[in-house]
């Protein structure tokens, strides 16, 4: 019977509530990100005070619209709802038909609300009738630990009946926090860090240092796929491919400090690009103590060489936790493909507790700033 009713998607935006002053800007960004994500799908979009209503076009397939919404940061959840008349009997009949799809072990929670006071029934009655109906159908109900939530909402013009509430990615609309430079390797961690940066509203400017003989080769490596996967959450980004050979030559006699100097080189590159691209922060995929190079002393000595704040969203994650996020968001399968990583080339007995003064001295000695400038001249970038 549900085929007779219009189906709409009610989108909630959660955390945007907190940003009372800039709320309008955040919502505008969210709406434009939703539109981009839904591309050429057939739907119309309406903005209400505290939610967005998406009406799929007639005969439109709702599944691609749902999977689009599943990838938009800033959506705390959405609900696929059928629209009826604001009549008790009609709403219950539809609820009955929707509930009957689920097996009898399903535990329901009922959320009943009458928002228009002139209707001939109130929220309590709506709730009582719905729970009586589910009980007679053989279902049990619980306020917590339930499987499905039956939402009944009666307004002046319509009744909304939903049994499909989906949790969104949460976070903030990408771009609402401006842009950030993200040091992106071909590994497991930095793509996850990039995802968290986007989740907090940052549009990514990726910087990748490679050991290929041309930027073009680097841009056709698995990095391309990692970046494309990340772009499935937000299609706008910029990426810089920077060759490592000038650094490799310059740093030849840095011994046990080579890996640390490589990181300093990357941070300095990131800082230059950040200034140029008007970004105020840099993200990396580092996590404290994960590998010998990521000791507090090393992170401190490296960061000491730049002025820009370095944000590390994975700092307290275990490797297992990072892997599980990487699998969930989809980057893992690309990250584990074999890759010529510039950091692993150098890793031989690296210094574990770097001395910040020595790092500063080596930087002067090898003229790291000039290495950075020359490398940047050989870099190439493109944006979407
Ligand atoms: P990842 O899994 O992200 O490669 P990792 O565990 O290999 O990290 P490191 O090699 O110490 O650890 O790298 C730490 C961070 O430095 C990375 O998360 C990334 O942000 C940055 N980084 C490493 N290699 C590169 C690279 N080739 N280009 C740009 N950034 C890099
Ligand atoms: Mg790595």
Descriptive account of the structure:
By secondary structure, the chain is an alpha/beta fold. It has 2 domains: 2-167, VC0802-like, CATH 3.30.2130.30; 179-383, HUPs (Rossmann fold, 3-Layer(aba) Sandwich). 39% of the residues lie in helices and 21% in strands. The chain is built from 15 helices and 14 strands. It has helices at 23-38, 62-69, 88-99, 123-136, 189-199, 215-219, 222-231, 245-250, 258-276, 296-303, 319-329, 332-335, 342-346, 356-365, 368-377, and strands spanning 6-12, 43-47, 51-56, 77-84, 107-114, 140-141, 148-154, 159-167, 179-183, 203-210, 238-243, 282-283, 310-311, 380-383. The strands form 2 sheets. Strands 2-3-1-4-8-7-5-6 form an 8-stranded mixed beta sheet. Strands 13-12-9-10-11-14 form a 6-stranded mixed beta sheet. A hairpin with a 3-residue loop joins strand 2 and strand 3. Helix 9 (258-276) crosses helix 15 and helix 10 crosses helix 14. The two termini are 45 Å apart. Magnesium ion (MG) is lined by residues 185, 187, 341, 343.
């Amino acid at each position: 019977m549900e085929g007779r009713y219009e189906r709409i998607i009610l989108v909630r935006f959660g955390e945007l509530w907190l940003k009372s002053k800039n709320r309008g800007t955040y919502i505008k960004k969210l709406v434009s990100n939703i539109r981009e994500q839904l591309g050429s799908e057939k739907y119309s979009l309406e903005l209400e005070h505290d939610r967005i209503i998406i009406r799929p076009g007639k005969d439109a397939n709702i599944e691609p619209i749902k999977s689009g919404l599943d990838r938009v940061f800033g959506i705390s959840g959405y609900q696929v709802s059928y629209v009826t008349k604001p009549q008790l009997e009609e709403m219950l009949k539809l609820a009955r038909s929707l509930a009957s799809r689920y097996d009898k072990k399903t535990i329901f929670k009922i959320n009943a609300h009458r928002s228009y006071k002139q209707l001939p029934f109130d929220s309590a009655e709506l709730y009582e009738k719905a729970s009586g109906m589910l009980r007679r159908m053989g279902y049990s109900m619980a306020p917590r630990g339930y499987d499905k939530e039956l939402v009944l909402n009666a307004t002046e013009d319509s009744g909304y009946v939903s049994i499909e509430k989906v949790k969104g990615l949460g976070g903030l609309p990408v771009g609402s926090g401006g842009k950030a430079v993200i040091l992106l390797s071909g590994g497991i961690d930095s793509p996850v860090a990039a995802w968290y940066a986007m989740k907090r509203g940052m549009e990514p400017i990726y910087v990748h240092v490679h050991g290929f003989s041309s930027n073009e080769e680097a841009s056709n490596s698995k990095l391309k796929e990692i970046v494309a996967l990340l772009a499935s959450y937000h299609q706008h980004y910029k990426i810089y491919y920077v060759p490592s050979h000038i650094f490799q030559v310059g740093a030849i006699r840095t011994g046990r400090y080579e890996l640390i100097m490589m990181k300093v080189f990357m941070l300095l590159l990131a800082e230059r690009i950040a200034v140029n691209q008007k970004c105020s922060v840099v993200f990396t995929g580092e996590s404290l103590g994960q590998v010998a190079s990521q000791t507090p002393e090393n992170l401190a000595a490296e960061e000491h060489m730049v002025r820009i704040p370095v944000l590390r969203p994975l700092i307290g994650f275990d490797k297992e936790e990072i892997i599980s996020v990487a699998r969930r968001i989809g980057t893992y399968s690309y990250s584990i493909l074999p890759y010529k990583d510039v950091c692993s080339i150098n890793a031989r007995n690296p210094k574990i507790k770097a001395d910040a003064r020595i790092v500063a001295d080596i930087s002067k000695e090898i003229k790291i700033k000039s290495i950075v400038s020359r490398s940047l001249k050989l870099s190439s970038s493109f944006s979407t």
